[in-house]
Structures are given as C-alpha cells and as structure tokens.
Write a structure and sequence with these properties.
CATH superfamily of the largest domain: YVTN repeat-like/Quinoprotein amine dehydrogenase
Distance between the termini: 93 Å
Organism: candidate division WOR-3 bacterium JGI_Cruoil_03_51_56
Largest sheet: 6 strands, mixed
Mean pLDDT: 85
Protein name: CARDB domain-containing protein
Length: 779
C-alpha cells in the first residue's frame, strides 16, 4: 500500500475534542540552508515492534555556498532520540526535491528498505531520474544500493515485502519508443543483494501521444506531480493468502486520457490479469487515476483514487472514487462521490480486522464551504457506514482541507493531512454511526505557510507516529521548510516511585551524590514526568532540592540517575524524599518515597616508619608504624615499591592498627617505599613513605689473588685481592686451606676492602687456597 509521510515539528494542540499529548517532536533541516527555498520533507514513515520510527523523504544538504537535493532516511527511537540519519544524492545534484525517497518498508526489526529516485548527469547540462532502491540494517549500515537507469526518467513510488520475504517495487520508467511514453513498471527485488529478479513494464496504448495536458497536480499531497507521467504504477499491495502482488496506477488511453489501471502478478512475475477503469456515466472523457490499493483477507481488492464525470447536466469534475475487484479481477463495486463544485479525491485506503473487513478511505471533497478533509467508512461491498458525507473535518468557510494518509488500529481510525495551513491529525472511532465519533484531533501551525502531515503509522493508541513538513517565513529570510516527525499518545497517566536506590545506607564524605530513583509507569501511556528530590538533615533546610524530567515508557520501570550532583559532608543522618510531579496523574498515592542515609568521613592514614633513610635487610622482620585519623579505619592494606613509588606490590591486608610486622622480601633496592591503604565503608585513603629507604641484599665477593698457580713462601707477607658486588659488605673474614678446600683455617677479620695483607703461615703445602667471607646485616 502506498504510504506517504513526513517528520514532525513541535506540535502544539490548537483544538482537541479529547486530551491527546505529543510524546516528542523532532525537526530536521540542514542548518546551512535553513534560509533557502529548497525542500525538506518526509514521504513515508513506519515503526518497528520496539517503537523505533523510520522515515524517508527529501532533504536539502550540502556545504557553505552550495546545496543539493538528497534522498533522506532517518531513525528515531520511541523516545525521540535520533539513532541515525542518512542522505545521498545522484550525480546530477538534484534541485528542489529531484532526489527523493518515496516509500519505505521494514523487515521485522532488522532491516529497512526504501525506493525513490535520484537525478543523474547524462552529459552536458542534461539530467534524468534513475529509480533507486536501498537497504539498511537497523544500525544504519548500508547493505546495498541499486538503481535503474533507462533512457529518460525512472522513478520508484512504492515498495512492499511479500508473503515469502520477497521484495517488490513499482513506479514509472521512460522509453525512447512510442514517442517517449512512460511505462507502468513493477519489479521483484532480491532482498539479499538488491538485484532485480524480474521486471515488468507496460504501456496501455502505444499509439497514445506523450503529452502534459494539465498543469494541475492530481494528487493533493504537493510532492508527486502524477500528471507528468503517461503510464505509472503508484502503489502496490500483497495478497496475504497466496503472496500475489496487486499494483494500481494509471495508463494513457487512446483518447489521450488516463484510466485507472490495476494489475495482479504472482511472485514469479506472471501477470494474472489487468483491468482498466473510467467512470462509465461520463459523456466526456478526462483522467481517472488510482492512487492507492489494498488487499483484504478474502482477497478482495480496493483501489482508491478519482474518476472523471461530466454530462450535459453536470459540470466537469473529478470524483472521490473507490473500486472493488475480486481476486480474479472482476469489478464488483464502484463508489464515485461528487462534492458540490470543485474536484474530489480519494488518496489512501486501509482495512479493519472485522470479518468481512470494512474499508476506510480518506481524501478531500468540495462541500460548498470549501475543500474538506473527508474520511469514509465502507462495508466490504462499499456501502457507506458513516453517512453520505462521512467524517468531515475542516476549519471554517473559505479554507481548504485535505486528508493525505489513513491508518486503522484497535478500533480507531487515524487520519492525517492539513487543515488550511495547519498540520492535522484526526482520530475516529470505527463504530458505524452518523456522523462518526471523533475521539480526538490535533492541529499544528509553524507559520503563515501551510504545514501538512502526509503519513501516519500506529502501533497502538499510545504510539501514533505522524510525519510531515513544516514551512515558515522568518523575518528577513526566505521561506524554508523542515522535515518533522513526532509521536502522539492518548494517555491515562499513573507514574509512581517504587524506591530510592541511592543514596542509602552509608556513603563517603566528599562523594558527589547523584540520586538514583526507581520509577514505574503504571498507566497506559509513555509519560515524561518531573521527579522532585529533596535531601536535608534539618527539616526545612535542604542541602539538595532538584527537579528533573524523566521519560518513562508505559508498563516499564526506569531507574533514573539525576544529572545534578551534591557533594556529601559528614552527618549522622540525612533524610531524602522523592516524589513525582505529573498533571492528570490518576493515582497520587504512589507518587512519594522516603529514606535516610549516613555520610561517613573517610579514614586517614600517615606512614611514620619507614619514612626514608632506613636500611632493612632482606628476609628480616621489620615493624611498619603509622597513625590513623578521620573516619575509623577497618583494614590496612600494605604495599611496597622497589622503584621509588612508580609501581606497587601488594603484601598483605589486616585489621587497621598503628603497627604492622613485615617480612622484608628478597628484593634488594635503594629505592624502597611503603604504602598503607586504610579502608572503611565510606571509602579509602592512603599514605606512603616520604622518601626512599634501602632493602639491603646479602653481599657478594670474588677472590682475584691468589686464584691458582701462585707460589708464596712461608712467613712472607702477601696481598690478597678481591672484588665486591651487590649488597655492600661491612667486613671480610679471611680463611685458608692446606688441603685444596677440604677444611678451612680462620686467619683474620677486617673491614671489607678490595685488598688485605696476609702473613703466610709456616705450613708448606702444594694445595693451598684462600676463602674470603663478606659480611653485612643481611648475611
């Protein structure tokens, strides 16, 4: 089904039969071109099961001093946050809406497809349209992009997913034959890679001359000039029972007029039937056009558009028309509704879930007082259920109003369009009464220029998505437009505070406290409410008094963390109160929660020993001392460093005390430090040695003389030499052996040095050896 749509600006209710709210509104335009007359408009919108809204259309993009018209795609989550936007243009750099995405469809919650056209350069100053279709995943990553570039203009107007996961597009394509007549085009696309599986294109009458007979735009949505095309497929729909594809539009007949042209295909591309239609009562011929199509559960087919009626008694006029076919293409019923004087159009059609299904069609009709947005409910056989005039919406005499899109959901019929210069949304009950029961309406006006809603999608009464265009004339600036989208909801509001999650219990002083509140929406609508949090230790003297806005989806629980913080100071007990502020809350008994908490001072610790200069041998047991202050510490964790505090090695954790016994590890260094980390429930604090101390390693010594082969006479005085390594020695003890080192005889102990004088004893031997034992505090 053809679905045309937009984005939504700040929609402010001007008239409401019942209370309907705007959940959020978003406006998109390129700020570099906000003062230009270039076009920004959405053309279609859909939402997935999570309430994420996807829209496509046209946006003006570019840089300083230059601009192009670009195909545009955007995703907003159900809370109105922009997930992503994508825009691109063809090589022809389209101007004022030439590059445009016309229709969108979703594959579950995973993928989004759209179809449209972009302007491409074909040489010199010549440009032409290429039909374009594209696939993105839900994160905005492009999966593929394809286009059809036949001679002349090729444009895609609608896209739909089939019963079996297949993908179909329709539109028009040009041919260089038959005087350049455009063709009615349908194609099946492979959703995996975007390639065309089959294409079917038709000309109703090859002898009909190409012409642009009228300057009037047949479709009152302001963005598709259908009169530019001779043969065109405007919309398609899928038969859910068998996967067949039904396409409608128009073709140029031998009288050089357009006729409603409807076709049916099976998924393999075989055309099952094709039917044309024009008003059988007219004496004179003019254009008859199909704008939208839908297939009912019983495979009946409904086409909405207009037909032409002129007799000797009736002035010429286009009528609001609905045609019913059965699955075999037999025309069963036609409704052609004529207003008072001017032209009447049916633009879009939808069905309810009755059995058999009722048919709802919106558009516009002239009712003397002016053009009015008109919505009709028909039975399955096209009998009017809302009276002769249906649901009529309009502002006042002398103004023109149009219905552009329609959607049925859960007993309600939603219509969007414009009311003179206002974007308009009307919600009807589906009950068969005359006139229909209008549940609520909504109008928005940005400026003196027309604003319009061109598409609507409904997940439920609280998730009504409307797309459109806003136009404005700022002072001293050219008129400009913006893409806008928004979400409406019909609320029964009940938001309650379940609990205060933070601050609770004991927290640390100087902590920046960001209150955290658990809130549940017990109502049926997404609600943005205010939450008021007050913290005090003395009633009437709050240390924290903040109101923030929280968005809570209906049926959901939200944990909201306030963005404004408070630096905690030590007090035995603080009281905290949180309450919601929400107009029309139906249950105020759950709006408030209370609690209390303690702010505890953090501990403080100061290392006193070792604090610099100490010499502690490896493997010795040493006493670390410290002092505590501030909040009472529960534990002390001991760390040491061998590199002056650059890195720290954990040793042990024990109950906080002013002394701790430490077994010095065997890691000699002259840059040792101790760190103590004191802990309590409020937090931690640490201190470390002010400067380095020494972890003393065991000494090492190497004997150099005598080292074998020397001949030293008895009673002579000889010099023993050695070298010392790591671990400075305090003393050297000298021993000698007469039996090759089997036993050793002490000679003397002297201050450690690299040479010692030795009186060789009178013990001749050929197996003498010397031993030096270096000694320090470490060993």
């Amino acid at each position: 089904m053809l679905r045309k749509s937009l984005l939504l600006l700040v929609l402010v209710p001007m008239l409401a039969l019942a209370h309907v709210d705007t959940m959020w509104v978003r406006q998109y335009y390129d700020s570099l071109h906000s003062g230009t007359t270039w076009l920004n408009r959405a053309t279609d919108i859909q939402a997935d099961s999570h309430g994420n809204a996807y829209l496509c259309g046209v946006a003006t993009t570019g840089g300083p001093g230059w601009a192009v018209s670009s195909l545009f795609l955007a995703k907003y989550n159900q809370w109105g946050d922009t997930a992503w936007t994508r825009a691109f243009s063809g090589s022809g750099h389209g101007y004022w809406g030439d590059d445009i995405a016309h229709a969108i469809t979703l594959e579950g919650d995973s993928f989004v497809y759209f179809v449209g056209a972009y302007d491409i350069a074909v040489g010199g100053d010549t440009n032409e349209f290429a039909m374009a279709w594209e696939k993105f995943d839900s994160s905005g990553a492009e999966k593929w992009r394809k286009h059809m570039d036949r001679p002349g203009d090729d444009i895609g107007f609608d896209i739909a997913r089939g019963k079996f996961g297949d993908l179909y597009i329709c539109g028009t394509c040009w041919t260089d034959s038959f005087n350049g007549l455009s063709k009615f085009l349908v194609a099946r696309i492979n959703p995996s890679d975007g390639d065309t599986i089959w294409t079917r294109s038709y000309i109703l009458d090859t002898a009909a001359a190409y012409h642009k007979k009228h300057a009037q735009d047949r479709h009152p949505d302001f963005y598709d000039d259908y009169v530019d095309y001779d043969n065109c497929a405007t919309a398609l729909a899928i038969d859910s029972s068998n996967g067949d594809i039904v396409v409608t539009g128009f073709g140029l007949d031998p009288n050089y007029e357009r006729e409603v042209w409807t076709m049916k295909f099976n998924p393999s591309g075989t055309r099952i039937w094709e039917k044309t239609f024009h008003n059988l009562s007219t004496f004179y011929h003019d254009d008859d056009v199909g704008f939208d199509v839908i297939v009912a559960n019983d495979s009946n087919i409904y086409v909405a558009g207009f037909d032409y009626l002129e007799t000797d008694l009736l002035e010429e006029a286009w009528n609001f028309a609905v045609i019913r076919y059965d699955q075999n293409g037999t025309r069963l019923d036609v409704v052609s509704l004529d207003g008072d004087e001017a032209d009447d159009f049916a633009t879009t059609v939808c069905l309810d879930n009755a059995s058999p299904q009722n048919v709802y069609v919106t558009g516009c009709m002239d009712l003397l007082s002016g053009m009015r947005m008109v919505t009709h409910k028909f039975s399955h056989d096209l009998r009017r259920r809302w009276g002769n005039h249906g649901g009529v919406w309009g502002r006042a005499l002398g103004y023109d109003d149009y219905g552009y899109d329609i959607f049925y959901k859960n007993g309600r019929v939603y219509v969007t369009g414009n009311d003179d210069k206002d974007l308009t949304v009307v919600c009807y009950s589906d009950a068969s009464q005359i006139p229909p029961d209008t549940i609520w309406t909504f109008n928005y006006s940005a400026d003196t220029l027309p604003d319009l809603g061109t598409a609507i999608w409904v997940n439920d009464s609280d998730h009504v998505y409307v797309g459109g265009q806003s136009n404005r004339i700022p002072v001293g600036v050219n008129a400009w437009s913006s893409i806008f989208t928004g979400r409406f909801f019909y609320p029964e509001r009940d938001v309650g505070i379940d609990t205060i999650l933070y601050p609770v219990g004991i927290i640390s002083e100087s902590t920046v406290v960001y209150p955290r509140i658990q809130i549940t929406n017990y109502g049926n609508a997404f609600t943005a409410c205010s939450v008021h949090v007050v913290i005090d230790s003395t009633p009437g003297h709050p240390v924290y008094d903040i109101i923030e806005t929280v968005a809570v989806p209906f049926g959901s629980t939200v944990i909201d963390t306030f963005t404004n913080g408070w630096t905690a100071t030590p007090v035995d007990t603080y009281d905290i109160t949180a309450n919601t502020i929400l107009a029309d809350d139906i249950n105020p008994t759950n709006d408030t929660a209370n609690g209390n908490f303690i702010v505890l001072a953090k501990p403080s610790v100061t290392v006193t020993v070792p604090n610099g200069g100490e010499v502690w041998p490896v493997n010795s047991a040493q006493t670390i001392t410290c002092t505590h202050s501030g909040g009472t510490a529960i534990t002390d964790s001991i760390f040491y460093s061998t590199d002056g505090g650059a890195t720290w090695i954990f040793q042990f954790k024990e109950a906080a005390a002013n002394t701790h016994t430490w077994n010095v590890p065997d890691t000699p260094t002259e840059h040792a430090r101790i760190r103590i980390v004191a802990f309590n429930v409020a937090g931690t604090a640490h201190d470390e040695s002010d400067s380095d101390f020494i972890i003393l390693g065991r000494p090492s010594v190497t004997l150099t003389v005598p080292n074998g082969g020397e001949v030293w006479p008895v009673n002579s005085v000889q010099t023993i030499t050695c070298t010392h390594g790591s671990g400075p020695a305090d003393a050297d003890s000298v021993f000698y052996s007469t039996n090759g080192g089997a036993t050793w005889i002490f000679q003397f102990e002297d201050t450690a040095a690299n040479s010692h004088t030795w009186n060789v004893p009178d013990t001749p031997t050929e197996h003498a050896r010397i031993r030096i034992v270096a000694i320090n505090a470490a060993g």
